[in-house]
């Protein structure tokens, strides 16, 4: 029986310690409020200490619940909100006074009962949707949904939707359960009503509880259901002739569709009346009107009126159900006003050719313009607007252009071989108009210059094949095609030259002169004939001075003088003469200085100019004189004085450089006298050899050394040696020779 009692006691304590869930309503305002009393049967009353733990007690939120530790009563201390915490799960503990656990911790669950204290809330205050105009009924636009914070398992959160206001027509409806808004009727027309504003309501308790409202804005999207229309059937405009790119006028249209959209934007087309494309039409993007403009210059004299048929349509095609417009076509009448037009040079620029060197007064061309104003009597005059070299003269009435002076080429005023001038044509209207024509004159090259040999002197070795060649070239002041290629040949007037010399073409501007037979050393003069490739060709016979030198083993000149000459083979004949003249002048000055000292000594002793009967001539040469002088100075060979071993008095006369070869066997050189006293005999022998040579012209003629005018008061210098001896000479006449001989007259008179 004791065991049974113990068992029953345990069972009773367990049943008393188990606590069922406790419900309490939210928003309960009478606090503190007793929720439940817990107790344990392990000890007598007053011997148990109770406690609770968990959210709302010692965890957040704190202080909502409390317990009397001796009685076990659990109290609610604050007002509950189910939307914040819908239940609390606590743990209950029972301890004896010594702190020993009497019972295992048990669960204490407190459930917060919901009340309808929250009204529905729309997700946004304004809902926006779009639907195309003309949409079929049942086309859904958007959903205006709301939420309720109350318990969703109760009617407190059962929301129902309705449309409170939408204007006349009732074009939209809303689903009461989902809040989806759809079209209810046909006939939505953006051009009639473009925007719909709906007031939507949401109510809980299945529509009988708390309510709230929101706004739904529905925009109708435009479709191209209205074609553009002209505001009238005819338009009239005016434009001046020759005005290209200007606007003539506007054609006005109206379209009910949404402004700025492709359904509204108009597109214009000229259907008739402009086969040449003189007009163009574009759309004003701001007003949607058509702008007529001139695409090509109009000519009043050709056509003064146009009647255009213009059509209009939208950029986007019309909807199939859209009605057609009777005002899709309009007539545009354009009148072309006559204005004064500038003259026209139909050939501009005018390109002509004039031969180089044409004399002044040569007609170049007649450069005239025409006046487009054929219905007005006007006169054109002409003037030179640009003539940089002042080469031309222009007839102001006929437009004939002639040369004022010879057209030169080359010239700094030529551009690519052409002379550019500008001609101004002006009418006599008020105000006058003018036009500018460009005249391009080609200066045609004329073959008026023969080629010039370069160089004119050279040195070759006297043996064939061993340095016996010389490269010759030519230049021509004429331009192509009157210049190269050049043709070189030995003078046809001297066929004997071909026995010793040959000419072979090297390129278009150069040739090679070669020795065919072994030649003696010395100077040679070869007449060459040069011809260019112009039309007609120009040719010139020129003299080539050749020095034939002694050949070494390697084909080079071994003689000292000729080696020096060969080093300067490219020096021209004029430069060579200057060098030789300078050398002779130096020798002459030295000789004159010595003679002056000797003469003074002799004059003090015997008198001046005591000489033998031998003829003595003082030749005064001016080496920088460009005209006059000895005609055969080029023929004098100074090598005879420099190399006396090459000449012999028993040999034949020397070969002259200014004469062609007269025989295949060259004459032997003369030997120079060993003593200076025999120089007179040497010169006389050379003179005799020159006079007796029939193959050359008589160059030893009267010479002009320095002509100073006529009427001199002095007598000839040759009178000084008119006496046989110095003792017979009378010097009194020196005082009659003028101021230049006053010093001599004072000394010897």
From TrEMBL:
UniProt GO molecular function: beta-catenin binding; cadherin binding; calcium ion binding
Membrane topology: Single-pass type I membrane protein
Top-level lineage group: Eukaryota
Primary localisation category: membrane
Signal peptide: none
Keyword Protease found: no
Any single Gene Ontology cellular-component annotation: cell surface
Subcellular location: Cell membrane
Ranges annotated as spanning the membrane: 573-595
Keyword Ribosomal protein among record annotations: no
GO biological process: adherens junction organization; calcium-dependent cell-cell adhesion via plasma membrane cell adhesion molecules; cell migration; cell morphogenesis; cell-cell adhesion mediated by cadherin; cell-cell junction assembly; homophilic cell adhesion via plasma membrane adhesion molecules
Domain Cadherin: 16-122, 123-230, 240-345, 346-453, 472-562
InterPro entries to which the protein is assigned, alphabetical: Cadherin, Cadherin-like_dom, Cadherin-like_sf, Cadherin_CS, Cadherin_Y-type_LIR, Catenin-bd_sf
Region annotation Disordered: where it falls in the sequence: 647-681
Role according to the record: Cadherins are calcium-dependent cell adhesion proteins. They preferentially interact with themselves in a homophilic manner in connecting cells; cadherins may thus contribute to the sorting of heterogeneous cell types. M-cadherin is part of the myogenic program and may provide a trigger for terminal muscle differentiation.
Protein name: Cadherin-15
Organism: Bucorvus abyssinicus
